[in-house]
Amino acid sequence: MERSTSYCETQLLHQLADGSDAALRQLFKIYRDRLFFYIAKITKSEQVAEELVMDVFMKIWTHRSKMSEVDNFDSYLFRIARNKSIDFLRSAAGNARLQELLWDQIQAIAANDHADTRLLVKEFESKQREAVLALSPQRRKVYTLRHDEQLSHEEIASQLNVSRYTVNNHLVEAQKFVHRYLAQNMDLAMVLLIAKIL
Length: 198
Known about the structure:
Elements: H1 2-17, H2 21-43, H3 46-62, H4 73-92, H5 96-111, H6 115-133, H7 137-147, H8 153-160, H9 164-185, H10 188-191, H11 194-197
Helix pairs in contact: 1-2, 2-3, 2-4, 3-4, 5-6, 6-9, 7-9, 8-9
């Protein structure tokens, strides 16, 4: 059965290399669900997963002439999916709209009493607190006044009797540290939530 499946896939890849859109549709039908769940697990977003699955197959179609040369299409396909997922997460790190999308989806699921997602959010918040506690006392104070008490740079400078430049420097370095800490201790998708908290 495995050999038959492999032979069928090889045929489809040769047909695809010859420009068969029917072969592409058949490969999409075979792999769509697996790719969707794989990408959704990385990005934590079903909407994003739907879009990236289409992107993966668009790339396959764009490079269809080379598909007959691919030895392991399964590995090839999931490598593209992984790279596109990581590219998305990297772009989301600097895109407020994407950050909001991920955050809103995670929060919505948590609100619907999905225990695993609620635990994920709690884990993120716990790691973020750990990172803040690891800051130097002065830097932690500045960070807390800014993010917990919502004071302006000027207000923090006045309260601590330091310059606004010093406050800004502490905040920049604190954010870098927290970002690195979370990147080292959590998966990439959850690190994106830093932007919602910092």
